[in-house]
Design goal:
Length: 182
């Protein structure tokens, strides 16, 4: 029987594609690394050749196309990903969920992997369109507390990266608080 396992506690499963676009991946270890590096290199190549960056929606279309091509080959990538970014033209954030079957859906919030089973109900209840950064941090705390309480592995915490109009930054987050079951 297979289940959740932790190989490295400090593994960063995100890739920065350009100044305003970040990709988070889950799936088979070799596939995620190879596909992430392939996408990252091609997005950077496009930016250098055309002297402009792809928007998050354009990047999601490229990724979806590459996954669809891969699906029809002998070696498909087994990768699910979240693509988040800030569109400089519309001045709005964007988030896309893309699965290994090349389905692409824009979403207001998302979770993937085993965390989705515990966090999506919290996000459904507390998310609203005009959310502030502080409110988002409180919702993230609720999600991580729920994971510490209910996930059947030793949950080590999260690495928080924030995408804004100014770029991508890593945010300090206290993973050491103790959560007691009610």
């Amino acid at each position: 029987m297979r289940g959740a396992s932790i190989l490295k506690t400090n593994d960063d499963k995100t890739k920065t594609l350009n100044k305003h676009t970040l990709m988070a991946l889950v799936g088979e270890a070799g596939d995620t690394i190879q596909f992430a590096e392939y996408v990252q290199a091609n997005i950077q190549l496009y930016s250098k050749r055309n002297a402009s960056e792809l928007s998050p929606s354009e990047t999601s279309s490229f990724i979806r196309t590459e996954l669809a091509k891969s699906l029809r080959s002998r070696n498909p990538y087994t990768v699910n990903l979240l693509l988040g970014g800030f569109d400089a033209e519309t001045q709005k954030p964007q988030l896309f969920w893309i699965d290994y079957l090349a389905s692409c859906v824009p979403l207001p919030y998302a979770a993937h992997g085993y965390a989705q089973y515990y966090c999506l109900s919290i996000l459904d209840k507390h998310h609203h369109p005009d959310i502030s950064f502080e409110q988002g941090t409180k919702i993230l705390r609720m999600c991580t507390d729920e994971l510490k309480r209910r996930l059947p592995i030793d949950f080590k915490g999260v690495l928080v990266k924030v995408v804004t109009k100014d770029g991508i930054r890593t945010e300090e987050y206290d993973n050491d608080n103790i959560v007691y079951a009610p």
